[in-house]
Amino acid sequence: MSNPPVAANLFTTHAPLRLLGGRHRQSGRIVFPLPDDPAYESIELPSRGILWSFTIQRFAPKSPPYRAAGAFLPFAVGYVELPGALIVESRLTDVDFEHLHVGMPMQLTTVQIGAAGAEAREAYAFRPSADGDAAP
Amino acid sequence: MTDVYIVGIGIHPFGRTASRSGLAQGEFAIRAALEDAGLGWPDIQFAFGGSDAAGKADTLVTQLGETTLPFVNVLNGCATGGAALFGGCSAIRSGDADLGVVVGFDKHPRGAFDPMPQDWGLPAWYGEVGLMVTTQFFAMKLRRYMDLYGITSTTLARVAEKAYANGVHAPHAWRRTPVDLETILNAPMVNDPLTKYMFCSPAEGGVALVLASAKKARELGRTGVRVKAVSMRTRPVGSFEVFAPALDLERGESATTIASRAAFEMAGVGPRDIDVAQLQDTESGAEIMHMAENGFCAHGEQERWLAEGRTGLAGTLPINTDGGCLACGEPIGASGLRQVYENAVQLRGAGGGRQVPRPVRNAYSHVYGAPGVSAVVILQC
């Protein structure tokens, strides 16, 4: 990972890459992101899932809050169902927009946001699963 | 339940009015509603109202008169109008007041809204990565729905086509030119599967209603439009709302389904009794999904309903007779009351070219807004 993470305690910064969620100590309900609340224990979420829904962001979101990266290029976003955990909203990357479909197997990765240099940050994203991906 | 009557209605045209502030559009609407009711501001005992981005409603006493009336500001996003009506009806039902005003107005700059994560209890990264965009939510809720229930893009386009056709006949609408199906379908995508003609645009406008107790309405000879139900609900566990970084695996109901059931129960009528409906149509798909969430059809039946024109003016259930948010635009604080205004017009039979061509007895309206708030109002004559 070449850039600082966009936020602390959002995902692991050591291998293997995992999103950090919270499990409510009493009810067992799993949430994301990890709340700053002792009622939740930190857990690593599954890194593979199924695309639950998606869209293409065709216009530049307003900045702030969006950390723009020069000329705007459309990007995909979606919800990915992580088995046994929850459905996470995410940027999608390394995907042909025309090939996106509900039910598509997805794999956790990271993506750079913001302009290259001091403004760049690393965010989590999902990409379509490839044959070589490790089991979740 | 004690009935509340709508004895005056007023609207400032929606769209763009460069010369008038949002507050001034709210004032315009109040003056129009008072004139419609044959009343003056000193007659009004309380007011509820608000805007999302155009100022504090209670400052309108400067222009309308410093009569010392209680004026409650409401700030509930797209459900601001519904929330104001909820408050206003409660005040009359309590017996403390006979006459009140509810008002909603707004004025937004061009382009998409630019909400900030911290105002929504969300971490900064959520906005930085590009997820703080309301239109994404609508597109993703819809994408999932289309897959589950077999809704096609043609059906989405039919909703927009109907909206612009109805807007032609609504003097307060912003978009008053018909747009054909092909143009809607082939327009640039904003957030797939929604093209630019399938989304409403942030806009401006103001709406006000004068509410009265039964006794007062009889005195005024204005008993034509009764509020039979007003319900407002926030989101339940497992619902899918704007700005949700994650969803529970176990999916639940929506704020809309719960508000709708409560309103039908309160009014003592069912979906089949409704003669005209105004449903939140932030985009074409929202109207489609809200048809089912409000109990008017089963999930998936919308495909046939739209193909058969059942939600057109001459259909079995005309929906969004003034063109809805698609044709009127979306001034957040005003849209909920615009729907009620339109239903009051329909109940009075004053809709002109957009009047439903058969008797209207029960009229239904539904707003939905971030972060998962819904308000439903049922009017009866």
Describe the model.
Chain A is mainly β. Chain A has a domain at 46-128. Chain A is 0% helix and 40% strand. Chain A is built from no helices and eight strands. In chain A, strand 1 (20-24) and strand 2 (30-31) form a beta hairpin. Chain A is globular and about 45 Å long. Chain B has 381 residues and is an alpha/beta fold. Chain B has a single domain (4-110, 200-380), classed as Peroxisomal Thiolase, Chain A, domain 1, CATH 3.40.47. In chain B, helix 6 (153-167) packs across helix 10 (284-293). Chain B is globular and about 55 Å long. In chain B, 60% of the residues are buried. Classes of the chains: A mainly beta (136), B alpha/beta (381). Chains A and B meet through strand 4, strand 5 and strand 6 of A and helix 4, helix 5, strand 5 and strand 9 of B.
CATH architecture of chain B: 3-Layer(aba) Sandwich
CATH topology annotation of chain B: Peroxisomal Thiolase, Chain A, domain 1
Straight-line distance between termini of chain B: 16 Å
The amount of helix of chain B comes to: 25-40%
- Tell me the major beta sheet of chain B: 9 strands, mixed
Indicate the multimeric state. heterodimer
- How confident overall, as mean pLDDT of chain B? 96
Query: Biggest sheet of chain B, strands in spatial order?
Result: 3-2-4-7-1-8-12-11-10
Low-pLDDT stretches of chain A are none
Question: Residue ranges of chain B: pLDDT <50 for 5 or more in a row?
Answer: none
* Structural class estimated from helices and strands of chain B: alpha/beta
Strand order of the largest sheet of chain A: 4-5-6-8-7
Largest interface: A-B, 40 and 36 residues
DSSP helix count of chain A? 0
Per DSSP, the total helix count of chain B is 13
